[in-house]
Amino acid sequence: MDPHSLKRLNSARAARRAVALVTEMDSGRDRVVEEGDLVAGDLGEALAKAFRTGKSGMVEIEGGEFFINVHLPPPRLVVIGAVHISQAMAPMARLAGYDIEIIDPRTAFATPERFEGFRLDAEWPETVLRDRPLDRYCALCAITHDPKIDDFPLKAALAAECFYVGALGSRKTHGKRVERLLAEGLTQQQIDRIAAPIGLDIGASSPAEIAVAILAQVIEAFRKREIAGGSVSG
C-alpha cells in the first residue's frame, strides 16, 4: 500500500469517517476514497453500495478488476434515558453490532446495577456530548419524556446529521416539542427528521417490545441512509 494512502486511511478511521481503499488489481495501484467524494460511473455506484452495506469485495468494471476494502465507523447508539426500554434495548443493540451508551443525569435511574456491562453516564447530555460529540454514524434516541433532558441532545443530533434521531412521546407531546425547537431556531425541515412517536408501528406495548420497535427503526435508517455529499454516482 502507498504510504500516503495508509496515512489518509488511518486518519479517516481515527476521525470516524467512512473510507474505502480501492485497489486496481492489474497494476496494484491504490487510492483512498472517503464517503462523499465524487467518483463517476460504475465504480462510483460500487463504492456507494460498499459504503451503504459495509461489505468489501471485488468488482469488475469496464474490463478491469478493483478490490474495494471499505471501513465504516462502528455505528454508535446513544440513548438518553436510563429507563426500562433502555435496559431491554442495550443487549439487543449489542447483538446487532451497535456500540450503545446510556446517558441520564437522574442518578435514581442511572445505576450500574441496572446497566451492568454497558457504558452509562449519570451526567447531563450537554456534558457527555461535549466530550464525545455525535456524528453521522450515530443514532440518538431520546426517551426520558423530560424536555430539560431530551431537547439538547435532539438539537445536537440534528446539527450533527445523525443517521437516526428519535424521540419518545405521543403526537401531542411531540407537537409541544416541535414548538420548543422552532422557538430555539431549528427549521421545520430539521425537525421533520425526528422519528416521533419513536419506533416502527408494530403495536408494541411492553418495554421490550418498544425496544424492538426502536432498534428495528434504527437499523432500517442505517441501512437506507443517504451517502454523505449525496450519492457517489456517475
UniProtKB/TrEMBL annotation:
Protein name according to UniProt: XdhC family protein
Organism: Oricola thermophila
Entry superkingdom: Bacteria
Stored InterPro entries: MoCofactor_Util/Proc, XdhC_Rossmann_dom
Domain XdhC Rossmann, chain residue ranges per copy: 77-218
Signal peptide span: none
